[in-house]
Amino acid sequence: MGALSHLRVLDLSRVLAGPWAGQILADLGAEVIKVERPGRGDDTRAWGPPFLADHAGNSTGEAAYYLAANRNKRSVTIDFTRPEGQKLVRDLAAGSDILIENFKVGGLAAYGLDYASLSAVNPQLIYCSITGFGQTGPYAARPGYDFMVQGMGGLMSLTGKADGEPGAGPAKVGVALTDILTGLYSTVAMLAALAHRDKGGGGQQIDMALLDVQVACLANQAMNYLTTGVAPERLGNAHPNIVPYQDFPTADGDFILTVGNDSQFAKFAGVAGHPEWASDPRFASNQQRVANRKQLIPLIRQATVFKTTEQWVAELEVAGVPCGPINDLSQVFADPQVVARELAIHMQHPLAGTVPTVASPLRLSASPVEYRHAPPLLGEHTKEVLQQLLDMDALTYDQLHAAGVV
């Protein structure tokens, strides 16, 4: 039994941040019911190609993007713009522990599905609202998407080649990282709210904003600014506070060197054939290496090109110096460590036979993650859920289905 198998989650969210949080809860055992629009569903169902293919190579119409964030859920289609649909959602919320939504601020109030309305039905409900900018502030009414928030929240000012270098300019991260981080923070907040409820505190609303999360995750770079008043600049793959901590060229490509202390630097200098660097007053301490970055980095580059990536990784591993290759995804999923940790798994799928998915990184010894359901087809479980949870009879279901409510 999963750690959260006693919980029911009503997931009204779509795209990534909310569904990511819902998938985490589902992986941990919660019963997660994904409520979608009839006929269309989650926007990401159409975000392809690529689409999942069946054994014959034919498209199933299930977008890879959608498949990434909806494992272990049941899909129910309900048109809650109609009174009959609103009642169904209210009835489901009455028996749920958590509700996740990412509609615009105030968007669900018109349907009687906002926190004030549903908390009156279920005072123990934890209601997690995810928006671009939060429930308050001058931007609250604006829509917010990961890419724009990466820009507004400062991440892109720190990502990309340094000014003056070929190809310089701001760059977004290669995955929707702000959405993912918001999903993670939302999960933490919901678990905290559950702990509060378990102590007799009742339900509550959680106000999550992509911009808040992005600014919070600036971490050391935010503090570099707040303690100095000087905005950090883009450094490409270099680190603002540690040297050497970046990519370097090799005889057959590139590798990453991540020297975290002076001892590791001395070991690296020895492997590189330049033990004198460790005693050079310009490079002996990290503070000195940061100050003399422009002198040290070209010297290292001149040394690293004489060995292959494989040679550097092997020799530095023996020396105890952290380093690694720069893998593409085919290399990632073929990596012995990734294979040993079983990070790529397959689940049974009603259209494709099986569907590949990336395993959860959560490893609990007593209540491990279980892979119960492939990402559901649109409305796959509507009849099942309404009959099981709301005691709906077949005639009522057929009438609602014929009317397009479900």
Automatic annotation (TrEMBL):
GO MF annotation, one: CoA-transferase activity
Keywords of this entry: Transferase
Classification via InterPro entries: CoA-transferase_III_domain (IPR050483), CoA-Trfase_fam_III (IPR003673), CoA-Trfase_III_dom3_sf (IPR044855), CoA-Trfase_III_dom_1_sf (IPR023606)
UniProt KW Electron transport keyword: no
Protein name: CoA transferase
SUPFAM superfamilies (UniProt xref): CoA-transferase family III (CaiB/BaiF) (SSF89796)
UniProt keyword Transferase present: yes
Protein source organism: Pseudomonas baltica
Listed Gene3D superfamilies: Crotonobetainyl-coa:carnitine coa-transferase, domain 1, formyl-coa transferase, domain 3
